[in-house]
Design a protein that fits this description.
This protein is α+β, with helices and mostly antiparallel strands. It has two domains: 78-314, Sulfite Oxidase, Chain A, domain 2 (Alpha-Beta Complex); 321-432, Immunoglobulin-like (Sandwich), CATH 2.60.40. 13% of the residues lie in helices and 29% in strands. A five-stranded mixed sheet has the order 5-4-13-8-9. Strands 6, 7, 10, 11 and 12 form a five-stranded antiparallel sheet that branches. It is globular.
Length: 436
Amino acid sequence: MPRHATVNPQRRTRLIQALAFALSAACGKLQAATTGAGSASADTTTKAPTPTDAPPSPAAANTPNPQLPPAEPAPLPASLAWKDADSLLVHNPHAIETRRAVLGRQLITPTQCLFVRDNALPPPARLLAEAGQWPVAFGGVAQPDAYTLAELQAMPTRTVATVLQCAENGRALQSRPAIGTQWQTGAAGCVIWTGVPLTTVIHELGGVVPGSRFLTATGADSLPDGIASDFTRVERSVPLSALEHALLAWTLNGAPIPLAHGGPLRLVLPGYAGINYIKYVRRIAFTAEESSAHIQTADFRVPLRPGEPRLTIPAWRLPVKSWITEPLGSGEPVKAGTTPIRGVAMGGASAVTRIEVTADGGATWHPAQLTGSDLGPFAWRLFEISLNLPPGPVELACRATNAAGQQQPELTTDNTGYFVNGWREHHVALTIAPAG
């Protein structure tokens, strides 16, 4: 009998799905390479302009050229029909971001408006119906064992608010965007998780074994057969210090975590980039070395030192960041006079303590008011200020400072496509109409 006649149909389906996913991602990269002005090639790292190598007119030279949403955005995939389509911009079925204006409407981002980012195909949705039996194995502890979700839910719980933000957020805002999905500001949200502190579980298992330096988590993403596990496995390692705040969460904004956001169980690492929040987590291990998975060793990495792209580390802790959500120049014209300016600010790995706004491209700065509730150091804050805007061109921008004294830079030093947080890159250019 011919060999192809004996291929397992399920294996064939999974392989086709994986190839479709890879093709979708490749198309996104190709589009970025052909439409993004000056985009880097797949094997070339470029550096964003800095004030020292800019032409004589820095404001003009460093002003980014962000890609605007398409006039007719792609529809949501059927599996995400429960999402609020008007609040989202679909890059592809696996990369969907929240529109900029939506993020400033309220402190907590509703789940139906929250961005979606897949690094591989999710496991079958039927697993959610069996969520209580979802197993998680624990290694690198004194007493290796496994718990079901139901057993974890019987342990003491904790609720925490965090900024969930993809390390790629803001990529499209750089003057020379890196290859990949052209995220604007919407691969981020502020959400509330409930679960069991990972320290509680590890205590039950006798503690971490000596010599461990990393917390390594593995997801249950659907992976194709016949391809090396290191290349396809969704597994990330973070420093052991992340254990202090780590959570195994099963609710998002007060409801069971949907499959699109990593349900039934997700590792939550406050202050870290979303790539490290492993979805559908199946294994937690404490290891002496980092994971050998491609997503750890080759993807989602940033320069150890600014301006030196050859020496990199994983994209771990989020940087300080903020952006304006109102006004954005869409809808009714902004008229000269007193104008409220609003936005969101986050401190990254520590609380945001100060936010400033400029209406003249950074020549002068005005302290803004942090508004709304303070939900802890890992949540973002809303801010507001009213400024008297004159008729004509206006360049609005904001910059945040966190409790560690780190201030949002003017420009992101490296053009890797990760951790874009320059205040000029997030600016809003407006033409103010005469009053009356």
